[in-house]
Amino acid sequence: MKELKVLCFSPMGSTQRVAEAIVKGLGVDSVRWIDLTLPQNRESQIEFEADDLVLMAYPVYAGRIVRVPRYYLKGLIGNGARVITLVTYGNRAYDDALLELTHLVKKAGFEQIAAAAFSCEHSFGINLGTGRPDQNDLSIAQGFGEQIRSKVLCLSGEQVISEKVFHPHKSLADIPGEYPFKTQFRHDFGGPLVPETSSACIQCGLCANNCPVEAIDAFNSKETDKNRCITCFRCIRRCPVSAREISLLDFVEHAEWLSLTYQTPKQAELFM
Questions:
Q1: In the CATH hierarchy, which fold is given to the domain comprising 4-181+264-271?
Q2: Which of 55, 59, 76, 200 is the most exposed place for a label (fewest CB within 10 A)?
Q3: How far is residue 144's CA from residue 141's CA, in Å, rounded to a whole number?
Q4: Going by CATH, does the domain composed of 196-247 fall within 2.40.30.160?
């Protein structure tokens, strides 16, 4: 197979881990990673070729594809390149996200050949999906990559014989979701969901340097642009002195409710 191109947005790192397992299973000789988490990697668009193989891996925020890679994807030119779509979510549900991504790649001119949804640890850090993706998840992801490889080789006219038993999958036509897609949080929070900075802040600049949307002032880490912030929690997780948090009461109560309601582990869902 030709070089695999991976477009990945992974503020917490879990989406990337699942994507890496799929890539391992694909067994390609050359992989070009495009980390869309970094703003500088979103400055130019890409035009693909018909014989390209692409993996797009994005997290789900409130049942939708996070807006940063969603907007970036609208400027891509697929030219019939084959694409694998992957979404990860915090063990509640991925709602319309995978269907939305399906619509986006088709509109951009890609040919979708496979899709997957994996449960990962919730970005809120509320003991939901803790430890996910685990080794079983990564094993399933790698096996899915191997299964896709067999399909791609068959499409290329190569005969593939495999005795391996893969994780069961559904048809791409069975991807769940409703259209029109919902456009806002189901929970009506009583204020902007933006991290606050306490007096413990040492102005190290790590949060600003790691913000995927450059919402944090590089010269004053206590200033966060609420219109840019996507509430990805990357700054909260990366802060070395735990100086950032969201203390909004509505959010705290909602997070507790999520933690209590969605403890049953969700399993990977595969489509081909």
A1: Rossmann fold (3.40.50)
A2: 200
A3: 5
A4: no
